[in-house]
């Protein structure tokens, strides 16, 4: 997106990407759950992605 490319189709595609991107702060959260045996209940699994 930082490159200056003089092509109409390219510029339309870059504008579509810019419209689709939404920033929601700086933190990223991933929630992972494990099913409890053969029930319909789940328990959360805590992951520290920053430590990976």
Structural class: alpha+beta
Find the count of extended strands (DSSP E, 2+ residues): 2
Share of β-strand residues: 15-25%
Helix segment tally: 1
Q: Please trace the helix and strand order, writing H or E for each element.
A: HEE
Gross geometry: elongated
- Radius of gyration over alpha carbons? 20 Å
- What's the multimeric state? single chain
Are there runs of 5+ residues with pLDDT below 50, and where?
A: none
Largest sheet: 2 strands, antiparallel
Widest β-sheet, arrangement of strands:
1-2
Question: Helix amount, in percent?
Answer: 25-40%
Mean pLDDT, rounded to whole units?
A: 83
Distance linking N and C termini: 29 Å
What does this structure look like?
Strands 1-2 form a two-stranded antiparallel ribbon. The chain is built from 1 helix and 2 strands; from the N terminus they run αββ. It has one helix spanning 8-20, and strands at 32-35, 42-45.
Strand and helix map with partners:
Blueprint: H1 8-20, E1 32-35, E2 42-45
Antiparallel strand pairs: 1-2
Summarize the structure.
Helix content is 25%, strand content 15%. It is built from 1 helix and 2 strands.
């Amino acid at each position: 997106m930082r490159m200056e490319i003089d092509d109409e189709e390219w510029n339309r595609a870059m504008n579509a990407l810019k419209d689709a991107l939404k920033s929601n702060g700086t933190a990223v959260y991933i929630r992972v759950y494990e099913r409890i045996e053969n029930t319909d209940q789940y328990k959360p699994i805590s992951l520290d992605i920053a430590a990976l």
